[in-house]
Design goal:
14 helices
Length: about 350
């Protein structure tokens, strides 16, 4: 290490558990952080500060004002910029001695293995089930440790998956929940400080993996309720019947993860955002199933508001006898509304706004 590095990383080097040898391991490590949002921000910030030699960052999105409440790597001046560009600038400002490789693209079955193979460890900072299963399967196939984190409202989960050792994400969660039971932070909200705490824990697990420390969260799922200030732990082990990491795997290549997670709207009629205005002008009723606080922030002109949390008790308010288009922020809750009607035996000309209001931007 150079004199600059010895000075910069001196507080690590003073730790017997890391020392100069551990810091050299950090310098030689290559870590991929997938997602530059709430979790990816603290993960990448702390890994950069720790001196991880090369950090890859993956994200296809741009910075929005609503991101700044929790995605502390971005700033007001970078609103509208690509998240990976905003993040790379900040990370290089923190530590110019390391390499940051930015991938402005969505991780898919077509590119995941090509990108992940170049890294030693992957940190999952995504916010949807399709991406989590994609990362899990890719890491199993490439034998890469995966440091997992997820957040929603005030709650979080953190774990480390070591392929064929501690078990994988599928061992713990064999199948995803139905899409309408899996709201995102954009729909349900998130305490701004929560991803900071969870991302820091994930960064800590990555560092421990690199230096070979004991006590890594492999085979242990840590659950955090930040609102009540409570941690608890659930132990899990490798499932020998797991379709990916089991003794006789049935999934041996990457699959269609959106289809696997039920995200392609099968069985539900979808309206393209570009067609919404004309459909309403021609007599379609518009039902906004977002919560009241969301409507107060940004109302949808001409819509009837029936929040999804009250939907099952207000079915009588649905204007039957004509086309009805249901809308929410991302399209998940509007599909859930239609499924609720179907389960209740209520038939009609029901449609969901594809991609939700976000898709109209």
């Amino acid at each position: 290490m150079t004199n600059d590095e010895l000075s910069r990383y001196s507080r690590h080097i003073l730790l017997p558990e890391i020392g100069a040898a551990g810091q050299e391991k950090l310098k030689a490590a290559r870590v991929l952080v997938v997602g530059m949002g709430g979790l990816g921000a603290p993960i990448s910030l702390y890994l950069a500060a720790a001196g991880v030699g090369e950090i890859g960052i993956v994200d296809f999105d741009s910075v929005e004002e609503s991101n700044l409440q929790r995605q502390a790597i971005h700033s007001t001046k970078t609103i509208g910029a690509a998240k990976v560009d905003s993040a790379k600038e900040r990370l290089q400002a923190i530590n110019p001695l390391i390499t940051i490789t930015a991938y402005r693209e969505r991780l898919t079955a077509a590119n995941a293995l090509l990108i992940i193979k170049n890294y030693d460890i992957v940190a999952d900072a995504t916010d949807n089930y399709a991406a989590r299963y994609l990362l899990n399967d890719s890491c199993v196939f490439l034998n890469k440790p995966l440091v997992y984190g997820s957040i929603f409202r005030f709650d979080a989960q953190i774990a480390v998956f070591k392929p064929r050792e501690s078990g994988c994400y599928r061992c713990l969660f064999p199948a995803p929940p139905p899409p309408y039971l899996a709201p995102s932070c954009a729909e349900g909200g998130v305490l701004g400080a929560l991803p900071g705490a969870v991302g820091a824990l994930q960064a800590g697990e990555v560092i421990k993996l690199i230096v070979g420390a004991e006590g890594v969260l492999a085979g242990r799922l840590t659950l955090l309720d930040m609102w009540r200030g409570k941690f608890r732990e659930v132990k899990f082990s490798r499932d020998l019947e797991c379709p990916v990491c089991g003794e006789n795997p049935t999934i041996t290549a990457l699959i269609d993860y959106e289809n696997f997670c039920g995200l392609k709207g099968g069985g539900i009629n979808l309206v393209k955002p570009a067609d919404l205005e004309s459909r309403v002008a021609n007599g379609a009723a518009l039902v906004d199933v977002r919560e009241k606080v969301e409507v107060e922030i940004a109302a949808l002109d001409g819509a009837i508001n029936i929040p999804i949390s009250e939907f099952a008790s207000r079915l009588a308010e649905i204007p039957l006898g004509r086309e009805v288009i249901f809308a929410c922020r991302s399209g998940i809750r509007s599909e859930r509304a239609i499924l609720t009607l179907q389960d209740a035996g209520i038939l009609g000309d029901f449609w969901s706004l594809e991609g939700g209001l976000d898709a109209r931007k």
